Amino acid sequence: MIVLPAIAQNAVDQAYLESLSQRFALPLGDKAVGWYLSWHEERLVLRHTELIKQSDILVDFASGSSSYRRQHGGGKSEAIAKAVGLHKKRDLTVLDATAGLGRDGFVLASIGADVTLVERNPMVAALLVDGLRRAGLDPGLSEWLPDRMRLRFSSALDALQQSESVDVVYLDPMFPERQKSALVKKEMRAFHDVVGEDPDADQLLEPALALATKRVVVKRPAYAEHLAGTKPSHMVKGKNNRFDVYINAAL
Length: 251
Ligand SMILES: C[S@@+](CC[C@H](N)C(=O)[O-])C[C@H]1O[C@@H](n2cnc3c(N)ncnc32)[C@H](O)[C@@H]1O
Hints:
Elements: E1 2-3, H1 11-23, E2 28-29, E3 35-40, E4 43-48, H2 64-71, H3 79-84, E5 93-96, H4 103-111, E6 114-119, H5 122-135, H6 145-148, E7 149-153, H7 156-162, E8 166-171, H8 186-195, H9 205-211, E9 212-221, E10 234-237, E11 241-247
Parallel strand pairs: 1-2, 5-6, 5-8, 6-7, 8-9
Antiparallel strand pairs: 3-4, 9-11, 10-11
The structure holds S-adenosylmethionine.
S-adenosylmethionine binds next to helix 4, strand 6 and helix 7.
């Protein structure tokens, strides 16, 4: 739900939140229980009524960590860039079929990829829309990001079956947390709470391989088995994860 209390202080904010409510079928109200979206300092944020100490969750492409990743090494040397193939060819088209908060998608777009984000969770999709809106107002991002990144609010399966072909399909489905892992950041735990598990993740590999002309890249925790039990062509090790790469054709 989107909480609309004294938050919408002017008609423009109010109309904007109403449009998000309609687009994502999120009810508007003035009280929530559990996870809800709120309007804070002109940004859409995700909060929990009981978790007062939890910091706001939002999509912020201009944030310190996003721009740090972009500015230091331009992201090109990152494992994700190598897995996708952007170190060899900059202007690949990528369907990021499990977009989440769009962080990986942003890294890929900032190196040169044309990225379509696909997200099925309405609250997460609304956060992405708001992040993209603010990116369009940011002097450092507005010139390139809106041209290189867009959102499709749908299930990955629909997107994979209906999209025009792309060079690369990128998948990063939720993976069951290791119990009480201290490594799982607070925000990630919260995110797990909101979107739950992705029990259908294995079903995405086959249509992804059918759509991608060049390759499919699957992000996995280092300890996880391969998606759909299918061995990749090769793996790229990241700091905390690995990327399983399934090659369809050379870049
Ligand atoms: C682990 S998060 C992705 C994080 C993302 N790579 C990032 O950098 O922010 C997985 C996301 O994929 C979404 N998702 C999972 N399965 C999906 C599906 N079948 N269709 C659409 N979205 C899906 C979940 O709702 C969740 O937001």
